[in-house]
Amino acid sequence: MSSPTEGTANTGTFVTEEALQRLKKRHGAEARFKLYGQLAIGIAIVALVTLLISIFGQASSAFSRYVLSYDLNIEASYVDPDGTRDPEAIARNVSGFNLMLQDQLADEFLSDDADRNIQRELYGMFTRLAVLPIAHATAESPETIGSEQIFNVALADDIDLFLKGGVSARKSVEIGTVAAGEGSTEDGVTLTMASQDAAEKLDAALTELTRSDVDDAPAVALIKAGNTWYRMEASEGRDLSLTYLAGPRALPAEGADMEALVLAQSQENRTVTDRQIAWTRILQSQGRIKSVLNTSLFTNSDSTYPELAGTAAAIVGSLLTMLVTALLAIPVGIFAAVYLEEFAPKNRLTSLIEVNINNLAAVPSIVFGLLGAAVFINFMGLPRSVPLVGGLVLGLLVLPTVIIASRAALTAVPPSIRTAALGVGASKTQSVFHHVLPLAAPGIMTGAIIGMARALGETAPLLLIGMVAFVAEVPDGPMDESTVLPVLIYKWSTGAERAWEPQTAAAIIVLLIFLILMNLIAIILRRRFERRW
After folding, report:
1. 3-state DSSP helix/strand/coil percent for the chain, to nearest 5?
2. Where are the alpha helices (DSSP H) in 210-347?
3. How many angstroms separate the CA atoms of 56 and 61, rounded?
4. What distance in Å separates the CA atoms of residue 184 and residue 200, rounded to the nearest whole number?
5. Nearest CA to 270 among 231, 204, 215, 217?
6. Left (φ > 0), alpha (ψ -120 to 50) or beta: where does 480 sit?
7. CB 365 within 8 A of CB 438
8. CA triple 290-296-297, angle to 5 deg
9. Residue 210 and residue 347: Cα distance in Å, rounded?
10. What is the enclosing helix (H) or strand (E) of 4?
């Protein structure tokens, strides 16, 4: 027996220079793969966080809104002119309540000779339907007619947006006190500021908010002197030429405090006028404008006014649509999966059916919308815009997903379960329904819930069957006109007013909450009943 040659023990395959290089390359490839995976996860997390921050940032203002808290004298001549005290007639008399609020605001803010443009500005601070809660409350308690009640009236969306910091860039500047004043509220007022520093501060603010890239768009200033608001027309040194807007009509006393609200846009370029801003500031100083939780977002139906629009009808419509979808897709999908997996003969026809089911799961959802419009609406004559048709279309859409998930769950049950059941004398049907199906139930339920979550987020097929229609009432059943959350989001996102932007983001959050809850239920069911073989 010959002894090994000296030095050969260290020259094996894994210790040669080439082997070490290959090992180094493999380790490098593994490190790069891990880095790529971590980068992918990081990009996904950043994208998700950015999306959520964007949505929640936009929606934050929609969950609160400004209301006018007003002491209203419920006069019978407005709300119940016939004296019937009929609750239904009182609730329908929106015009009477609207006129009552308008007249009480006019008594407080308008002169007797105010022209129609000024009246229109005042009445535009709230919409006609904003008095609906007052009408309903009075209808429920007719005995309050003739007494003074405190109500919260939703301000118009433009006023609400202004109070939340939108509409125009602005800056408040303290400009000291009044040194002297002359003129009248009808012909114009000239006020002299007490110090040159105040004049320089005002000029600096006007210069700061004037856009140099836009011609003829200087910043404007609204001046509050005492309790009266003016619009600044011109300035020269410490002297300000002003036009009366709102508040007491007497000239401010010498020494009265002065404040300037500098706005980047003139009233011709914004949706809130100077006079509306002045009235709003006066009401704020009186403590009659306050921010409240926007519960109408969840209790109201859709509306053409953003400040009154809510998601109640869409939430109920989504639930009814999901109910119809579940009744169609889950039982049919489960029984189809059981038959194909446990009973169907393995032949070309079965293979063809299985291939087509897999292909149907990848068909674009809009194709199912076209199918639903052709079959359920045009051929069967079912009404448009109802949860029944929407549920049937979405049921067909998620049916392949439920079948595939159910077959996967059935396949995961070990064959020994079937063999044991047959071995003790059970029939094929008994072995499937008494043993295999209960053990596969967690996987089946998980697949079904995920399929339903996908259906809840679908929009395209529902647009084709008319569920984009304006629905002002909460549906009572699957045959009532309805809409669903994804379609409502699409509709609101196309609104022209800026107030629809936070409303849309808020509706997206409501939809996300639904989806998260459904996925959470799927996770809980899977962990609760999951079996490991």
Report:
1. 60, 15, 30
2. 274-285, 296-299, 312-338
3. 9
4. 26
5. 217
6. beta
7. no
8. 110
9. 79
10. none
The answer to whether 525 and 442 have CB atoms below 8 angstroms apart is yes
How remote is the C-alpha of 282 from its chain's centroid?
A: 31
Give tens-digit pLDDT for 413-425. Answer: 999 999 999 998 8
Is residue 165's pLDDT more than 70? Answer: yes
CA distance 288 to 282: 9
Q: Which residues contact 119 (CB under 8 A, 6 or more apart)?
A: 106, 110
In degrees rounded to 5, what are phi and psi of residue 223? -110, 130
Distances (CA, A) of 140 to 89, 137, 151, 299, 472: 11, 5, 14, 18, 22
Q: What span, in angstroms and rounded, lies between the C-alpha atoms of 147 and 74?
A: 6
How far, in Å, CA of 142 to CA of 139, rounded? Answer: 5
Q: What is the enclosing helix (H) or strand (E) of 175?
A: strand 170-184
Give φ, ψ of 112 to 5 degrees: -65, -30
Residue 2 has pLDDT above 50, yes or no: no
Specify whether the CB–CB gap between 81 and 96 falls below 8 A.
Answer: yes
Q: List, for residues 419-464, the tens digit of each pLDDT value.
A: 999 998 889 899 999 999 988 988 888 888 888 888 888 888 888 8
Q: Provide the CA 283 distance to its chain's centre, in angstroms.
A: 29
Distances (CA, A) of 41 to 49, 52, 523: 12, 16, 21
CA angle 223, 107, 157 (to 5 degrees): 60
| Cα 110 to Cα 69, 177, 250, 303, distances in angstroms | 19, 27, 15, 30
* Distant-in-sequence, close-in-space partners of 159: CB < 8 Å, separation ≥ 6: 66, 125, 126, 272, 276, 280
Per-residue burial over 358-386, b if 16 or more Cβ lie within 10 Å, else e, is eebbeeebeebbebbbeebbeeeebeebb
Q: Which residue has the tokens 């110090």?
A: 195
Q: Helix H segments across 294-433?
A: 296-299, 312-338, 348-360, 365-372, 387-412, 415-423, 428-431
C-beta atoms surrounding 354 within 10 Å: 17
Adjacent-strand bridge partners of 37: none
- Residue identified by tokens 């239904």 is 88
**Residue located via tokens 């984009």:** 468
Pairing of strands 228-236, 289-293: unpaired
Joined tokens for residue 441: 């139930």
Tell me, rounded to whole angstroms, the distance of Cα 426 from its chain centroid: 55
Q: What's the mean pLDDT in 339-367?
A: 89
Q: Is the pLDDT of residue 19 over 60?
A: yes
Retrieve residue 271's tokens: 């949706």
Task: Please give the pLDDT value at position 310.
Answer: 86
Q: Is the dihedral of CA 496, 501, 506, 508 positive or negative?
A: positive
Q: Is residue 373 a contact partner of residue 301, using CB atoms and an 8 Å limit?
A: no
pLDDT tens digit string along 202-221?
Answer: 889 888 888 766 666 788 89
For β-strands 170-184 and 289-293, DSSP reports them as unpaired
